[in-house]
Amino acid sequence: MLRSGALRHVRTSWVSAVAGIVVTAGAMTIAGIPSAQALTLSTGQIGSFDVISWSGIPGFHQNAGGSPAVNFSTIFNVDNPNPSYQTITIGNDSLSQGFGAGEYLYLTVDNTNENPWDFTLEANGSSSGVVSILDGSSAILKVFLGAIDGTLTSVRLTVGALLPMITPNANGVGSHLDYTAEYNVAPVPIPPALALFGGGLAGIALLARRRKQKPVGDMDTTVPMLN
């Protein structure tokens, strides 16, 4: 049979252990669950993405801003060799954001164009690999940041396709050549279920703290006996 003091110790220790799983907005760090550790950029950080390089003759690129998703559009130069695989790389090489051991960088990319495009996310030189996103579809791109704590300094997104693409006209008659990529990039939000889980943990921790502060004389120390 456990005495009431022992029961309180077990309960408090369990709460402390569970409360060690910390969910923090913005960094989305889930300490204690390595397989789920995640880091995402803010809308402002994504909005700072600028052109880093073109694979061919530079075309026209626009950052139209927006929140929570940032809207980008790229018109590739029609004077590039035809056809050819053309790319643009945008990003920010001047970031300074800490990350924990085993964390991944996550970003959501939404292809709003009428053709499929290839997207590659890079972080500190590590790559997600090429992810083809169909027209009107979205995907979450993920890059492993490292096995030890570090600082995220560079994030790049490369967009490309074999151009030009041939797209049927809206009326179904004839076709036109497509050189334009249109896409939105956004932070990856904490899933609702995870947010509720984090809120539940906070409630448990608060309850444990209140019970710990309650005078011993006011506590029910009776331990039920088993028949």
Main attributes of the structure:
227 residues, alpha+beta, 2 domains, 16 strands, disordered N terminus
What does this structure look like?
- Residues 1-35 and 192-202 have low confidence and may be disordered.
- The strands form four sheets. Strands 1, 3, 4, 7, 11 and 16 form a six-stranded mixed sheet that branches.
- This protein is elongated.
- It has two domains: 4-23 and 193-218; 42-186, Sandwich (Jelly Rolls), CATH 2.60.120.
- It contains three helices and 16 strands.
- Helix 1 packs antiparallel against helix 3.
- The longest helix is centred in the C-terminal third of the chain and has 22 residues, at 192-213.
- With 227 residues, the chain is an alpha+beta fold.
Overview in brief:
The chain has helices at residues 4-19, 43-47, 192-213; strands at 38-40, 50-54, 60-65, 70-75, 84-92, 97-99, 104-111, 117-123, 126-127, 131-133, 138-144, 150-152, 155-163, 165-168, 175-178, 180-187. By secondary structure, it is α+β, with helices and mostly antiparallel strands. The strands form four sheets. Strands 1, 3, 4, 7, 11 and 16 form a six-stranded mixed sheet that branches. Strands 2, 5, 8, 9, 10 and 13 form a six-stranded antiparallel sheet that branches. Strands 6-12 form a two-stranded antiparallel ribbon.
What amount of the residues lies in strands? 35-45%
Sheet bearing the most strands, described? Answer: 6 strands, mixed
How many domains comprise the coordinates?
Answer: 2
Instruction: Count up the helices.
Output: 3
Please state the structural category. alpha+beta
CATH topology description of the largest domain: Jelly Rolls
The CATH architecture of the largest domain comes to Sandwich
What is the overall shape? elongated
